[in-house]
Amino acid sequence: MDYSQRTGQTHSPLSDNRGPSRQRGGSYRSGRSSGGGSRYQLRSRNIRFRGRRSGVLTRFAGLNLRQIMMIVLGLVLAVLVIFLISSCVRSCKANTPASSDADSRVAAGVSDSLVADFGPALDQAEALQWIAIHANEYPNEDLPRLALREPAAIAFVRAYPEASKVGSAYGETVSRGEVPLLYNWDERWGAVDYDGSALAVTGSGPTVLSMAYIGLTGKTDKTPADLAALASDKGLSGGEAHTAAEFFTSAGKELGLDVHHYAPDSDTLIDVLDSGTVVLVEVRAETLTSETHWAIVAAENENGSVRVYDPTSVSVSSRPWDPATIASASTNMYAVSLAEAEAEAGE
């Protein structure tokens, strides 16, 4: 007997070598289909393969309808709560009165009054920073320097590049005998060209004469811009103070004013003021301010000091002065009063 008969195996060609044949019922038959060979029975077993679909869906598949409804209801309630909270926050912000949160430049939690106090100073600081960044865009350095020297002029200097260079009306009512305090950088005339620059830095002469005219006559038709044009037309703009002294006597006649020149002296200054006139003074540089310019002595105070309205300086205009100090700082002094004809017409 050969080896194949002894082992009970049969050989198949390589093309049909598919191994044992599977029978119904899950049994497998050995290599021999009949004869004295032994049979081996293998029981079939179902094998479960766990796939990737066994996530959330598989978990939900194990829930009943009531449980699913409870989960959905919980999600809806959560979304509703979030919506209500966000709506309330928006509504509260909209209805909250102005407070420190309204200005991000001021710390939160401080009083509204402190926020209000900080506001103007912060606005000025931001405007001054803008002026510094754009300083090379101004016609000359006098305007940026004005912003540094006079905080009250910062807003004007900031607006100057876009401002109209045409003057506008005074637009206020003044009682006769009350001299108004005017500044060169007023937006109604400060941007007007005068003596090679803006009237804001060159217009002290026209401005003091305008103050005298308005105060003595009660009329407001001659603003600093109007009188600057008059000085230019007469060829009397220029010089260290930007307006020649002769302008006041020349223009006074056209304005119905009597103008008389005096040598600067404290006694003369008081005497002139007591007679009901005002006095225009040309003050030297490095006295009242760093620049030569014109100012007006508007009145004598009860204590013997005098009230000086300086169109170039808030600090000079806001304090009393010893008449001797003003006289010693001046190079020219002009007494200005209402002409007799004008005075009689006004009575």
Structural class per helix/strand content? Answer: alpha+beta
Give a quick account of the main beta sheet: strands, pairing sense, barrel closure.
Answer: 6 strands, antiparallel
Name given to the CATH homologous superfamily of the domain at 173-346? Cysteine proteinases
| CATH architecture grouping of the domain at 173-346 | Alpha-Beta Complex
SSE topology string? HHHHHHEEHHHHEHEEEHEHEH
Gap from first CA to last CA: 163 Å
Rounded to an integer in angstroms, the radius of gyration calculated over CA atoms is: 50 Å
CATH topology of the domain at 173-346, by name, is Cathepsin B, Chain A
Q: Give the oligomeric state.
A: single chain
**Could you give the order of strands across the largest sheet?**
3-8-4-5-6-7
* Uncertain residue ranges: 1-40, 96-101
Strand and helix layout:
Elements: H1 3-7, H2 56-61, H3 65-95, H4 112-133, H5 142-149, H6 154-159, E1 193-194, E2 197-198, H7 199-202, H8 204-217, H9 224-233, H10 246-255, E3 257-262, H11 266-274, E4 278-283, E5 293-300, E6 306-309, H12 314-317, E7 320-321, H13 323-329, E8 330-338, H14 340-346
Antiparallel strand pairs: 1-2, 3-8, 4-5, 4-8, 5-6, 6-7
Helix pairs in contact: 8-9, 11-13
